[in-house]
Every structure is written in C-alpha cells, then in structure tokens.
Amino acid sequence: MRIKLLLILLAGIGSMLIISCKTSETMDQKVEKLLSQLTLEEKISLIHGNTYFTTPAIPRLGIPALHLSDGPCGVREENDPDSWNPANWTNDATAYFPALTSLASTWNPELATEFGYAYSEEAIVRGKDIMLAPGLNIHRTPLNGRNWEYLSEDPFLASRFAVSFIKAAQSKGIAVCAKHYALNNQEQDRGTINVEASERALREIYLPAFEAAVKEGEVLSIMGSYNQFRGQYACQNPYLLKDILKGEWGFKGLVMTDWGAAHNTLECANSGLDLEMYPIEGKAGNYYMGQPLLDSIKAGKVDAKVVDDKVRRILYVMLKLNLIGKAEPDTTGMAAKLGTPDKAKTALKVAEESVILLKNNEILPLNLKNIKTLAVIGDNATRKHARGGGSTVIKAKYEIAPLEGLQKRLGNSVKINFAQGYTISKDRKAKDNSLIAEAAKTAASADAVIIFGGLNHEPGNDCEGDDKPDMKLPYGQDELIKAVLKANPNTVVVMIAGSPVEMGSWIADTKALIYTSYLGMETGTALAEILTGDINPSGKLTYTLPVKLEDSPAHILGEYPGKNGVVKYNEDLLVGYRYFDTKNVKPMFPFGFGLSFTTFAYDNCKVDISGKAENLKCVVSFTIKNTGKVEGKEIAEVYVSDPESALPRPLKELKGFTKVNLKAGESKTVSVTLNQRAFQYYDPVKKQWVLEPGRFEILVGSACDNILLRQEIKL
Fold first, then answer.
1. Does residue 398 sit in the same domain as residue 514?
2. Is 551 a catalytic residue?
C-alpha cells in the first residue's frame, strides 16, 4: 500500500512538474511552439486581413481573429465586414474624446495617461484588440488635413504624450498602433508622393516620437504610411522597417499597412512588413501577402522563413494580450458600458485644460452681472464634429455643442440670441451676406457677443484625404467677424480648428481670442466653463500660428505639395518654431503660447549636473509664483541652445516642460530633468547621436519667444 501511495504521489509530482514547465515557458518558447504547429497556408492566412477590420482565426490552435478599430478620438462605429458602410448597430455609441491636438495642448502627460486608460476601457467593451492610434506625425505644413489628429510640430512634446498614452492604454489589455510611420505630413497625393528628407531631419524631427513609442512605450504595433520615402513606399521600405524600427530600436511587435498601402508581393514580403490590411482594390480575399505570396514561396522566389518572422510577431502580440485560447469577445450589454459618466469626466478634464486663451483685453471671464443679453454667432456654435474627419468617425453617446453648453451654464439668468452667421458649402469662398447682416443685427442689440468660428471636418478643412487649399477662414468668416466687431466691440472670438488659420484682418479689433481644437463630447461644457471663469484656461499652442501661409518653412524654404511626384523637405531641421526662431520671423502667435486669467513670475534658476554619457542627468529647478488674484495652472517650458555646435542646429529646442497648479500668491519650486538626448544631435556621417562637449544654454520660459530664465552650462 505504501509503495502504491508513493507511486501515486510521485505521479502527482510529475504532473505538477509538467504543469510547472508549461507555465514557466518563456514568451519566445510559446511563440515557437505555436509556430511549429502551423501549416504554411495557415501562416499565410495570419499575415493579411479577413474582413476590413479583422484577421482570420485558426480555431484548432486557439488562435483568434484580431479585431481592429480606427479611433484617435474613440472607438469607431461598427461597419459592414467587407465595406466602409456603417453596420447600423444600435449599441455601439461610445465616448467621444478630444482630438490629439487638444490632448497635447494641455501640456499635461498625466492627462494622456488618464485618456489612455479610458480609451482602452471603451475598446475592450467593444471587443477590440488593436486600436489604430495614436497619430505621431509632425505638423510640417499648416495645410495638412490631418494635423488635428497629430500632437505637435515638436518631436519632444509629441513623444512625451505618446509614451504616456501608450503605456496606459496597453496596460488594460489592448494593443495600440502608432501611426503613420513615417513622414506622412500631407494628405494631398499621400498615396504616391515621394518624400526626400535628410538623415538629420528624419532622425531629429520625424522619428523621435516613434522611437519613444517603441523604446519607452513598448508599443505593440505600428502602422506604415501611404507615402514613399527615398523612392520606396513606407510599408515596403526596408530601411524604415528592418534597419531602423526592428534593427536599431529592437521593435518586437507587428508592423501593419495602412488600408491599401501595400503595392507589391515581393517587396511586402522582404521589407519587414508583417500584416497587410485591406484587400487589393477592396475585393474580398485578394491580398498581396495572400495567394500571390504563397505562390512565390512555392516557386522559390521568397524564403518561407520571412513568413515565420511575420507570424512570430503576430503571435507575440496575441500572447502579450492573452488572446490565445480566448473566446470571441462577449458584447452583451455593451451599450450601457460605453460613454459612461467616468469617461465623460475624462473627456471634460482634457477639454478644460486644452483650451488656449490667446488674447484678452479684460473681457474674460464674462462679467455676468453686466450681461442681460448674449449674442452667440457662428455655425460652430451648434455644429457637432464626432461624425466627420475620416478615420476618426465616432458615433458619440452624446456631444454638447457650444451653444448648448452656454444655455446649460447660464440658464435663465442671461437671454441668449443665436445667429448662424455662415453656412457650410462645398465652395469654401462662398458667403451668405444675409446671414452676415442678421448676425451683425443680433450682435448690435446684445450686451456681449461670442463668435464660434473656425474649421470643421468637411473636405478641404480638417479632414483625412484632403488638405486645406490655404489658411483662409472658409465661408466668409472674415467678413462676418469684421461686421460683428463693428456692430459690437464687446466681442469674444472662439476659433475651433485643428490647424492654423489666418486672422490678421480682424485680430487687432477683437478684445479676446480663444483657440481650440476639437474637444469631444463635452465641448460646450468646457468652453462655457472657460468663458464664465469657472475654469481658468491653461492650454498652450503645440504648433506655431503664422501670420500667413507664406511664412511657414515648408512653403518658403521647402516644398509643398511637391513637384513631379517628389516633395523635398528643404527646410530640413527648421520645422515650426525652429524656423521662426532661427530666421527671426515673427508669427501671429508662437509655439508654447497661452494666457491665463492670472499671471506668473519665474525666479531662482539652478542647474545640477551629474553622470556622463548615457547616465547624464541635468536637473533644472526654478521657482514659479502666481502673482495674480485667482488660482491657475502654468506650463513652464525648458529649451536647450547649443551655440558652439560643429553642425548647424536650430536656435533652441524644447527638451522639457512641467505644469504646476498655483493658488493666488502661491510659489512653488519645480524641477525638470534632462537626459543626454537633450543635448545631442544626429551625426549622419558617424550614424549615431553625438553629445559634443562644450557650452550650452538652458532657457526657461512661458513660450518659445518668452524666455525668462537663462543658465549657461558646460558639458
């Protein structure tokens, strides 16, 4: 009996050891085990789409379909499996979050973390595995129709928000997809344009946000862009995909195409691309990396090992998300779990901190004691933006427009008279003189006026697939604003736009100007809070507002939209404020600018340096005091200048920032830590980042053109 019991015990220990071995398998071992059980045909099936937004499943091995969704501003509404047509579900209304330009305008990465958490929770409820965001491309030209989907003209600012968002979103159990890699900086001719940019511009301007997403954020997927780079399509570009992304940066996740961005079977196979989405010409089942690739392997034109690498990466992502063996997502009761109050609260917090006050001649916040009648003018006062913009289409749970927000905030205490002022037309130059006359009449009889103008998501404005033709306000808005200002000087202008517009014909005459991108489901609430003083504005510009388009570096030093299918980035490193600073060109409003209802003073700058090379640590500390009468938040920006560089560098570059809340009269000492990259440039000859010993300047200010503290250091 004892022997029998011993044998049973030993058998139990053995089984436990087997279980232990299984559970202790490394990620690589799990991947290889699954890979070894797949047929070549099954492997091929995993590296392209099945429907527009899913990949095939292999049930016998517990390999599920991947469910993808657009959604920089939230989870896109469901569409038919094999078309772009809405599926017309009744339970897929979701939270509508502010645009990424709005998020970056907060200059508060903690909000990017909160945004990422809320965003991924919505995606999980909707049964999504990979969300196609964030957009990390740089604002090169004011005309880019997708600038509002991207974070900034500055790569450092973009990288900080990218990392915070990615880490938070992926911690909940979804993958995000950083896009569009790389140099997707215009929508005109996006599918064919060949970008020529220097190696320094590539490394210092256009790639840092993607590099940070990989190295710091550990992003699980990356989407290639439509354009070409140096004569090769980005999704088939071995230098971008194999050499830099997977080689230098050590990216372990999967690389997918943008929808329809594949062009050639052999190039797709050998370039480092892992997943082809969207069938050729939209025809179901027709993929470059489908049957044509299988035929090429059988004919000996492609090594089967390249498919193994692609599948490894897809399986790696699935395992990281614990998807292997997982049942199809259960969306029962989905409607009640989407767009919930906690998500709305997050959207509101981002919106509140993103609003930028550019001008204020003692008219804001509105003195409601002296206002009995308020004129609200402009199509953007009532327009809702969730349903437009291209890939960002959202079926919002709700969206509060500015007029509704003011009505809720003011109630019966103030009479609000609305005049549309302008109407939307396919012709951006069209204007309605009768609406302008009506608006002027409405303004003249009011105690105060608020104009809600700017852009929208119609073609030719802030819209995917279409750049703006110019920086002019559409639909006769300049004439409208001038007429209203003449009728009533007590007027506030609110610009809702995700990219720069010209305002020179009337800006001197307006007492106050607010500039904001698309603010999501709580747009009206946030703007009403700012206008009435319930919230003190604290947003700052993440891109430069030029006086006119011709002042933009892409248009005066570089090229746009290109010639003979090629666009040359001749402005090189001088993108955005780097150009305006270095060439001493005065913008309408500079990068990093934004006012408050209070004022701040800076003092007592100190710099502490420790470590060397990769361990270099430069701590910049200084004191900020709220010198005004109300509580407010200030964003302090830290720039680095290298006046003795062997290679040309911009006059100064953003390398750190912090946001601090201060009560009236309160002072706080804050610190910003800079690492070695803050002082380096990329040497294209040495093919590496270089920290050149010598003298540097640390510059601290409230905007790129308002430097308040300086400290010289030697490294």
1. yes
2. no
